[in-house]
Amino acid sequence: MAKKKLGLEDLGGFVFSTNDDFDESEYSNGQSQEELSPGEQELEAHFSNKGRGGKTVTIIKGFQGPEEELISLGKMLKKKCGVGGSTKEGEIIIQGDDREKIMQILKKEGYNVKRVGG
Question: Which ranges carry the SUI1 domain (predicted)?
Answer without folding.
Answer: 50-110
